[in-house]
Automatic annotation (TrEMBL):
<dbReference type="GO" id="GO:0004777">
    <property type="term" value="F:succinate-semialdehyde dehydrogenase (NAD+) activity"/>
</dbReference>
<dbReference type="InterPro" id="IPR016160">
    <property type="entry name" value="Ald_DH_CS_CYS"/>
</dbReference>
<dbReference type="InterPro" id="IPR050740">
    <property type="entry name" value="Aldehyde_DH_Superfamily"/>
</dbReference>
<feature type="domain" description="Aldehyde dehydrogenase">
    <location>
        <begin position="20"/>
        <end position="479"/>
    </location>
</feature>
<dbReference type="InterPro" id="IPR016163">
    <property type="entry name" value="Ald_DH_C"/>
</dbReference>
<dbReference type="InterPro" id="IPR016161">
    <property type="entry name" value="Ald_DH/histidinol_DH"/>
</dbReference>
<dbReference type="InterPro" id="IPR029510">
    <property type="entry name" value="Ald_DH_CS_GLU"/>
</dbReference>
<comment type="similarity">
    <text>Belongs to the aldehyde dehydrogenase family.</text>
</comment>
<keyword id="KW-0560">Oxidoreductase</keyword>
<dbReference type="InterPro" id="IPR016162">
    <property type="entry name" value="Ald_DH_N"/>
</dbReference>
<dbReference type="InterPro" id="IPR015590">
    <property type="entry name" value="Aldehyde_DH_dom"/>
</dbReference>
<protein>
    <submittedName>
        <fullName>Succinate-semialdehyde dehydrogenase</fullName>
        <ecNumber>1.2.1.16</ecNumber>
    </submittedName>
</protein>
<feature type="active site">
    <location>
        <position position="255"/>
    </location>
</feature>
<dbReference type="Pfam" id="PF00171">
    <property type="entry name" value="Aldedh"/>
</dbReference>
<dbReference type="GO" id="GO:0009450">
    <property type="term" value="P:gamma-aminobutyric acid catabolic process"/>
</dbReference>
């Protein structure tokens, strides 16, 4: 397969049953760095969404009965196609989402890694032979695909958040309908084109871009043919979608909001702590669900840490995604800017202090926000209770280990957490006490296809990635054979 250009891989219609399907209405996709309209995309309605579900249902029997190796081979071809077209996919993502092209290319590799991983997992699905309970009976357990699946994905990782759901579904033998985000649908449509080119059968993967999130979302959560639903997004929306799935008792995976603590203990290597905090905070301009949100620094090292952190933050480069050596680009839209400004001002009104940044970089564009460092934050402030989802580091202090852990756990969320320390007793102790689904110890990058991704408390249910991610798309069946005497 020859490599695509950005232009040849930019698709603008819905992808249903292996065909590009137009719609009467269309919506604009804009570049957040420039405000330029880059495409007009088919605006699918509930009728098209239901058509996609029927296509997935009709394709299910043929797909689920294929040998695991057949599905694995196609997934590996899809993986290779993504890597062969990494540059074009990265350019599409940078244009619609704003992240630097180099960072976007990294996401393409990351997203493709899930396809590669689950291609392998497709061939490593095992059941169990159970102990004998009666002399004339034998029992065993098999794994089967759950059936037709649906997914709603977010704008901040428009490639990887799709492959992380689609790859295990296809590996398990399921078919799927995906509603990509209105802000960034082009990445989803591009990888659907590649899936089609490598031979993934018609109807196995369907993409329905839309501005009617409520109507199409209702189809994807209530349709009786759909047996599994996956969502990544806010906790408030996730709760509503979970209610909609309840009547038909669908299997659910929900990766919801976070409020990740990043704890710096007094025995930490502060240079490592600064480096890892920059990784955990400024990737994608802070617009990640596992971004460090509450920076908790032990009093004894706070001043030294802030000095080092301020120096490091001052070196970050903010620019459009096609510039060289960019650390991050624009926020996604004006609402994101307004939220960052509101949380920052609220903290200042309550006594916090800006050490650097704290403003829109109008000379670059209205959606570019300066890397910002705030000290004097307290747990009661809004900036400590809400996801900032922007490039603002809000630092608060604590006196001892017990207080640090208490502040870290004082949230209804529990997606990711981070801490820096060198004492091994403390590392073991704190690792077990922090309430989160994923934890980085002296590490700011914690997501990998091999790792189990997901949260506790109101950060969601289920896991993505790892062998546990495949199980989310499988049913467990126990079979008992009698009359063997």
């Amino acid at each position: 397969m020859s490599a695509h250009s950005m232009k040849s891989l930019t698709k603008t219609n819905a992808f249903i049953d292996g065909h590009w399907v137009p719609a009467d209405q269309r919506f604009e996709v804009t570049n957040p760095a420039t405000g330029e309209v880059i495409a007009e995309v088919a605006d699918a309605d509930t009728v098209l969404a239901e058509r996609a579900v029927e296509a997935a249902y009709n394709a299910l029997e043929g797909w689920r009965t294929k040998p695991a190796k057949y599905r694995a081979d196609l997934l590996r071809k899809w993986y290779n196609a993504m890597l062969e077209n990494k540059q074009a996919l990265a350019e599409i993502m940078s244009a619609e989402q704003g992240k630097p092209i180099a960072e976007a290319a990294g996401e393409i590799e990351y997203g493709a890694s899930f396809v590669d991983w689950f291609a392998g997992e497709a061939e490593r699905t095992y059941g169990d032979v159970l102990p004998v309970t009666d002399s004339d009976k034998r029992s065993w357990i098999i794994k089967q695909p759950v059936g037709v699946c649906s997914a709603i994905t977010p704008w901040n990782f428009p490639n990887a958040m799709i492959t992380r759901k689609v790859a295990p579904a296809l590996a398990a033998g399921c078919t799927i309908v995906v509603k990509p985000p209105q802000l960034t649908p082009l990445s989803a449509l591009a990888i659907a084109q590649l899936a089609n080119e490598v031979g993934i059968p018609d109807g196995v993967l369907n993409i329905v871009p839309t501005t009617d999130s409520k109507g199409v979302g209702e189809v994807l959560t209530t349709h009786p043919r759909i047996r599994k639903f996956s969502f990544t997004g806010s906790t408030a929306v996730g709760k509503q979608l979970m209610k909609q799935c309840a009547d038909s008792i669908k299997k659910l995976s929900l990766e919801l909001g976070g409020n990740a603590p990043f704890i710096v203990f007094d025995d930490a290597d502060l240079d490592v702590a600064v480096e890892q905090l920059l990784t955990a905070k400024f990737r994608n301009a802070g617009q990640t669900c596992i971004a460090a949100n509450r920076i908790l620094v032990q009093e004894a090292v706070q001043d030294e840490f802030l000095d080092k952190l301020k120096t490091a933050i001052s070196k970050l480069k903010v620019a459009r995604g096609n510039a060289d050596e960019v650390d991050y680009g624009p926020l996604i839209d004006q609402d994101a800017i307004d939220k960052v400004k509101r949380l920052q001002q609220s903290a200042l009104d309550d006594g916090a202090e800006i050490l650097c940044g704290g403003k829109v970089l109008d000379e670059i564009g209205p959606l570019f926000y300066a890397p910002t460092l705030i000290k004097g934050v307290t747990p009661e402030m809004d900036i400590s209770k809400e996801e900032i989802f922007g490039p603002v580091v809000a630092v608060q202090s604590f006196s001892d280990e017990a207080e640090g852990i208490r502040h870290a756990n004082d949230t209804p969320y529990g997606l990711a957490g981070y801490f820096c320390a060198t004492d091994m007793k403390r590392i073991y102790r704190v690792s077990e006490l922090l309430e989160c689904g994923m934890l980085g110890v002296n590490a700011g990058a914690i997501s990998h296809a091999y790792n189990s991704f997901g949260g506790v408390k109101q950060s969601g249910i289920g896991r993505e990635g790892s062998r546990y991610g495949l199980a989310e798309y499988q049913e467990t069946k126990t079979i008992t054979l009698g009359d063997l005497g």
